[in-house]
Design a protein that fits this description.
Layout: E1 5-6, E2 9-10, E3 12-15, E4 18-22, E5 26-28, E6 48-52, E7 61-67, E8 74-81, E9 84-85, E10 89-92, E11 95-101, E12 109-118, E13 123-131, E14 139-142, H1 154-176, E15 193-195, E16 200-203, E17 207-210, E18 214-217, E19 223-225, E20 230-238, E21 242-250, E22 253-260, E23 262-263, E24 270-271, E25 276-279, E26 290-297, E27 300-302, H2 305-311, E28 325-329, E29 332-336
Parallel strand pairs: 13-29, 14-16
Antiparallel strand pairs: 1-2, 3-4, 4-28, 5-6, 6-7, 7-11, 8-9, 8-12, 10-11, 12-13, 15-18, 16-17, 18-26, 19-25, 20-21, 20-24, 21-22, 22-26, 23-25, 26-27, 28-29
């Protein structure tokens, strides 16, 4: 192979009109490819864009990072992934970081559309194509009360639309709220997972759906904890979800706690990670008492366990696998595999 990144050392390959740069999950946009060779230093003008993990899973959160070139400092980064606004913080000078979500029905690639703002007053648009790992899901057949196993009647349809509107309002509010949560994220219950995220479901042989949450075992009255710091946005009875508590964690993140027998908080309360928000119950469309835990980034449902993964401090995150490289074409960072030589293009 004629080029690559090894423990922070950058090698480049001269190509007509572009520079080929290799790196594990880290893509560089170079300002000028003319005359560059592996033995010559490259002056990086555009920011470095990276993400972790290298190929985030379908229906999961991941971390997107933009690092400014020291030659062209940045004052801000804006953007979106899969239609959801990104919220960049600054963990250190010259570095901007946001979490993002891969939808459960995503294609093999999601695009990060970014707009970087330079200290000099200019701005530039960049696009990173991020490979997606497909999810593996089970198919479940469940028996519930007849009312919940058939298409809804007109009254239930009105209730469902109201419930969806209330949930959507929480997602919209989370995009308008600054980040409230920190690295401390906990499981709302330390118990067995009884139904995984993304599994297909058939109720009473008639109604099909996808399970967009995580079911945790519990008995009636067991305590349910807030997964992260946030503000209580909704405490209401929903048709299918039963008694729900929705928390707005800010920076696009929402968590929900469904089928509760009793809420222990009120709208407007601020709760810390690990504080009680309710008790396990069997309200709504259920087969028995349990906690249905939901996490969304905006309106995109994700596996709640991925919130625990992205909340870890960088030193605590597992190393990402090598598996990405790129070639700059205009303002788009094209993904490829590092074992494929592209210098002949």
């Amino acid at each position: 192979m004629t080029g690559g990144v090894l423990r922070g050392i950058i090698w480049t390959v001269p190509i007509v009109g572009a520079v080929l740069v290799f790196g594990p999950g880290s893509f560089l946009a170079e300002a000028d490819a003319s005359g560059a060779t592996a033995s010559q230093p490259v002056i990086r003008m555009d920011p470095e864009i990276s993400w972790s993990p290298a190929a985030p899973g379908e229906g999961r959160l991941f971390t997107l990072r933009v690092v400014a070139s020291r030659h062209t400092p940045l004052i801000g980064v804006h953007g979106a992934v899969a239609g959801e606004e990104l919220h960049f913080g600054r963990p250190e000078a010259g570095t901007f970081e946001s979490i993002a979500a891969v939808p459960v029905d995503a294609d093999t690639v999601v695009e990060a559309e970014l707009r970087v703002l330079f200290e000099s007053g200019g701005e530039k648009k960049l696009t990173a194509r991020i490979p997606v790992t497909r999810g593996e899901y089970r198919h479940e057949r469940l028996t519930v009360a007849p009312r919940f196993g058939a298409p809804p009647d007109s009254a239930d349809q009105v209730q469902l639309e109201r419930d969806r509107a209330r949930a959507a309002s929480v997602s919209a509010a989370a995009h308008r709220t600054p980040r409230l949560w920190n690295e401390r994220v906990v499981l709302p219950r330390s118990s067995r997972v009884t139904s995984g995220f993304g599994d297909g479901r058939v109720f009473n042989g008639q109604v099909s759906s996808r399970h967009l949450g995580l079911d945790l075992q519990g008995v009636q009255g067991d305590t349910v904890l807030a997964a992260a710091r946030g503000v209580v946005q909704v405490v209401e009875p929903f048709l299918l979800a039963g008694n729900v508590v929705y928390l707005n964690h800010g920076a696009g993140v929402v968590s929900g706690y469904f089928h509760l027998s009793e809420p222990l908080v009120s709208p407007g309360d601020t709760v810390e990670a690990g504080e009680p928000v309710g008790r396990v119950g069997a309200t709504g469309r259920v087969t028995g008492p349990h906690l249905h835990w939901v996490v969304r980034y905006g309106s995109t449902s994700v596996d709640p366990r991925s919130l625990l993964e992205v909340s870890r401090a960088p030193a605590e995150r597992p190393e990402t696998s090598e598996g990405s490289c790129c070639v700059v074409r205009g303002d788009t960072l094209q993904t490829a595999r590092p074992d494929v030589t592209q210098s002949g293009r």
